[in-house]
Design a protein that fits this description.
Chain lengths: 317, 173
């Protein structure tokens, strides 16, 4: 890694279908009247000063104040995380889950802007409110591709504003350079995404499996097509699959080998509870344990940073 | 930069801070211990700040310093240099190249502006990979004429003006 690993970046808006959904989190509370786990206290101040090598006289003695730069430390969840009911809202977790689900599993902080309005002293109890200010479009940095998330926090003690804290992180999919052999590892074929099937792949990105339904005659169809095979109507809407299914048929692939696959493996025709059938992989059992009638359940397999696929796990596996 | 080039108006007293004055640099050896101690003191248990194996799995060659530690070091640097009466009002930092174990970060600072007791300092921390941190610190000194031991007056005729640092957010990857 050389140079500005994080803050050199470019926007890669191609296929950034996630951003509109991410933006819906802007303005939502990340924490409301949340409580710091510990009151401001001398031992934590001392440990901080020891780590930083900070010998400022204001941070020791009977009239000690906390180093102002500790502001965020008083709000941290620590090793055990934030307690349920601690005032942290679900929005931040939801946003992170959405980003994790899209493969942006790593996090690195990039910016911190703090203003200190009154000193914090041992004994001060901390409360804080935080709001998600913005979520950037997809950006590519040397660390990988991801989205910047900016939050703003007000930190109070005794109802009085002690400081403000704006924090920006990059939630990203690590660049393949971490594993040199994997950099040129063969990847699975890409699905062809077009106007006829884009909503299907958008839903997969949200971990939902959508079945097309003809609005003319109500017939379900899969895979996605521009018109109905039963009545020829071009009108359609969707039904979300429950995820339950059974193996209707299968083959075991031995030859020829394809670079991204590791034969032998089973390719199954899964009949969904809704009645349509789809071709997919079976996970959770070896290829020779797959059998017709086997109950399976939908899950999503991340094949690589850009590709996630609906697959089926053997029930109970 | 315009400033009087005549003799200091209070030659007997302590030097006054002026825009362009530079703070004595601070060398921070970036040890594994500092990274871990800083992470734990700031209650940050993200694995990338203490577990090299997991850091590598996430695309980093080793553990790296967390932003709270960098923030604390920048604050310390400024109050170290401005003296015991200095109080931090704002610290705004942006991270670039990571601080990995075995590196050395050199913090430097330049006075941007002075308004009564309030000074604004531009701080940069560089390591062997490049700029680890750039930021601005606003601090109050007790009085406008604070004695500051570790500040060098601005060179009235700098031989070479450092080029303005480009905004890293705008640079292509």
């Amino acid at each position: 890694m050389t140079g500005e690993a994080v803050n050199e970046q470019r926007t890669t808006s191609d296929g950034d279908d996630l951003h509109p959904r991410l933006r819906t989190f802007e303005g939502r509370a990340a924490a409301t009247a949340a409580h710091g786990k510990d009151p401001v206290n001398v031992p934590m101040i001392r440990h901080w000063c020891e780590a930083m090598g900070d010998t400022h006289p204001a941070y020791t003695g009977p009239d000690a104040v906390a180093p102002p730069t500790m502001l965020q430390a008083w709000t941290m969840g620590g090793l055990s995380g934030h307690d349920a009911g601690s005032g942290r809202s679900g929005a931040y977790d939801e946003l992170f889950a959405l980003l994790d689900g899209a493969g942006f599993t790593s996090v690195v902080a990039t910016d911190c802007e703090q203003e200190y309005l009154r000193p914090l002293r041992p004994g001060d109890e901390i409360t804080f409110d935080a709001v998600i200010e913005s979520v950037s479009p997809r950006k590519t940095t040397k660390l990988g591709t991801g989205h910047f998330v900016t939050t703003r926090m007000d930190v109070r003690t005794g109802g009085e504003l002690a400081g403000t804290h704006r924090f920006r992180i990059l939630k990203y999919a690590p660049a393949a350079r971490a594993k040199p052999p994997a950099a040129d590892a063969p990847r699975r074929p890409r699905p062809v995404i077009n106007r006829d099937n884009r909503p299907f792949w958008d839903a997969v990105a949200e971990h939902r499996l959508l079945i097309q339904r003809c609005t003319g005659c109500g017939t379900l169809r899969f895979p996605w097509l521009p018109g109905c095979n039963a009545c020829a109507s071009p009108g359609w809407d969707t039904v979300e699959a429950s995820g339950e299914g059974t193996v209707f048929s299968y083959v075991v692939m031995h030859h020829p080998p394809f670079p991204a696959f590791d034969p032998p493996y089973a390719v199954a025709l899964v009949e969904l509870a809704e009645g349509v059938r789809m071709i997919s992989n079976i996970t959770g059992v070896p290829y020779d344990k797959v059998h017709i009638g086997m109950p399976v359940r939908l899950e999503f397999l991340r094949a690589d940073a850009e590709l996630e696929l609906p697959v089926f796990r053997a029930e109970g596996a | 930069m315009t400033r009087p080039t005549g003799p200091d108006p209070t030659p007997a007293g302590p030097p006054r801070l002026r825009p362009g004055d530079t703070l004595a640099p601070l060398e921070v050896p970036v040890t594994r211990t500092l990274i871990v101690a800083g992470a734990v003191a700031s209650r940050d248990y993200q694995d990338v700040h203490h577990d090299a194996e997991l850091a590598r799995a996430k695309g980093s060659p080793d553990i790296f310093m967390n932003i709270l530690t960098t923030n604390g070091l920048v604050g310390r640097y400024v109050t170290d240099r401005l003296g015991p009466a200095a109080v931090l009002r704002k610290v705004a930092i942006r991270l670039g190249a990571p601080n990995h174990p075995g590196d050395t970060m050199v913090l430097t600072g330049t006075v941007e502006s002075v308004s009564g007791p309030t000074v604004e300092i531009r701080v940069t921390g560089t390591n062997r990979l490049g700029r680890h941190v750039t930021g601005t610190v606003v601090a109050d000194t007790a009085v406008a004429d604070t004695a500051v031991a570790d500040v060098a007056p601005a060179d009235p005729a700098p031989a070479e003006e450092a080029p303005a640092a480009p905004d890293p957010q705008e640079s292509p990857a």
